[in-house]
Amino acid sequence: MSTTPLSRTALAAATVLLAAAAGCAGAPSGPRTATAPAGQARPADPPAATSAGGPAAAAPPRGFTLVATGDVLPHASIIRQAQADAGGTGYDFRPMLSGVKPVISRADLAICHMETVYGKDGGPYTGYPAFKSPPEVATALAVTGYDSCSTASNHTLDDGAAGLGRTLDALDKAGVRHAGSARTATEAARPTLLKAGGATVGHLAYTYGTNGFPLPEGRPWAVNLIDENKILADARAARAAGADVVVVSLHWGTEWQTAPDQRQLSLGRSLTAARTGNRPDVDLIIGTHAHVPQAYEKVNGTWIVYGMGDQIAGDMINYNGAFDPRGNEGTIGRFTFAPPAEAGGRWDVTKAEFLPQWFNTGTGRVVDLNAAIKGGQNLTAVRDRIREVALGRGAAKDGLVMGE
Question: Which residue has the higher pLDDT, 251 or 36?
Fold first, then answer.
């Protein structure tokens, strides 16, 4: 991004209670697991039996829901808000995202776009044009429920290799996975694999450029740049590594343009047309960068979100030098995947939804527009403007709906 602004949860420990004896009241009947005498291997459990006496069929894999959101872009005003929310000591970005936490945390898999890199602990932190964000952003993303973030953007090299490394270190510490940038060649070559329901999901990410900053010397793999052949090769490598579903995050498009540009349309067609065997190489494309929401479209049987808009950003100035409220509008994409009918088949999207969201720069909070309107806030015009764009390429005919 290059526009000037105006201005998990920690996992709870589970305690497994074993029944002290068989036949406890209310306990389910069935064989107990044998315990081997000391020094001997425990015998293999017998297969479960069907009513006919044979082994039971394996349970089918469980489907899953995936949500994805747009650019997290902490301008100087956003950094000041986080400092105020922390009471002046440190930075707390959790309140900013609390309005969408119910949607994000309920999904089986949640993907964000971390637009900027992090500065050193204690700062200094900067907004536009060369961003260095507080690493506390990563904590807020984890608490909100994000599992992975794309980190390939035009700002990935704003503070060179050091900033890139600090960002991935902070995400690792918070327990948030990442794709699109790397600290080592080994890391760059390894696909990000995530569990969701009964599926393994590969997450890949790429950017159109890095604002003229060259790739660090000797590290051509530091940031993934958009290249059709590389994307498809990486998608196939993710399949070979065990991915049932491949999701590609693309930082692309023309800023302030609600319509996808020609490169988005062309690359989207090519990526969704590529197939290996009876499966496409890419199962979902989620786009960022344009600042404004862009359309959803099903192309060659695969959903593309051309642009989800900004999730967190300061008041935005467009190319005409005017404040543009669209720069604080966005969508949450939510896709429900069902397992294939037969082994090796495609995990199909059985439900595609968009949820309109808005960043209120006055309060410094992300707003779930549907929830806010139900609560009596007069934001119908904002929601309807986003809905018109999301459906602007005829996605309703392919089943896209506005979710709750």
Answer: 251
